[in-house]
Amino acid sequence: MDSILIRDLRVEVLIGIHRRERHVAQTVAIDLDIGLPGETVFASDRVADTIDYEQVVLRIRALAASGHFRLVETFADRVARLLLEEFDAPWARVSAAKIGILGNVRLVGVAIERRKG
User: What's the chain's Rg over C-alpha atoms?
Assistant: First the structure.
């Protein structure tokens, strides 16, 4: 499966179930595998025939800034659905993790995969 990779995208998100987490943004690290919408790009060499990863990053940053998310699972699902619906990806694998929120743990998070259909 052909895919675009984005690794260790860091965004600031209001995320969590605790009162303090509703007012202080936390860093979330995101890894993405985004299925290519087709093979045309390999012959055309045009960004219009693929998914523009700069636009993906900008859109995810906007999503992160759009409000409070209670769970990392919810945020990851919203990112995956954004990729499928707005960028026409046939599938997406999203890992999202809060960094440094538990003692002696580098990160905690989820990995999900979504497909069109």
Answer: 15
